[in-house]
Design goal:
Blueprint: E1 3-10, H1 12-16, H2 20-29, E2 33-40, H3 44-50, H4 60-67, E3 72-80, H5 82-90, H6 103-107, E4 116-118, H7 122-132
Antiparallel strand pairs: 1-3, 1-4, 2-3
Bound molecules: adenosine-5'-diphosphate (ADP) and magnesium ion.
Adenosine-5'-diphosphate binds at residues 54, 59, 63, 93, 111-112, 114, 117, 120.
Length: 140
Amino acid sequence: MAVQCTFSIIKPDATIGNNTGAINAIFEKAGLRIVAQKRIQMSQAQAETFYAVHSERPFFGELVEFMISAPVVVQVLEGENAVLAHREVMGATNPAEAADGTVRKEFAKSIGENSVHGSDSEENAALEIAQFFSGNEIVG
Ligand code: ADP
Ligand code: MG
């Protein structure tokens, strides 16, 4: 399996809860390397663009409001099969269904406020990384 990059967001519930480091430790233990990272306040336009794929879903407005309600930490993670490895360690979207040891099982409050985002494909990872990072900010 090839080394890949994926895009990650530590969401507002987790930054407010001061769990950035604890979540990063879980990622690193899973073999993911943080090759870029910054804490930002997302604008409404950035959040709407980022989640445009969900714009017709009933929870879209609430999702955008949540994502701009406090700072987030955007990251590029590198590792073997990183997209899938990251999705596995994040756990299911709904924390009630997340497996033991996953980030969402340990930290998420609800299906909406679920602590982390991870890309769902290598193609989307590249698009999402490009939305938040320039090439010289990623140092592997
Ligand atoms: P994932 O983040 O696991 O890839 P999705 O791409 O399906 O999940 O959804 C994107 C985000 O939208 C979720 O992480 C969550 O924050 C929010 N979301 C998804 N489903 C719901 C829902 N039924 N109610 C409220 N928020 C939701
Ligand atoms: Mg998704």
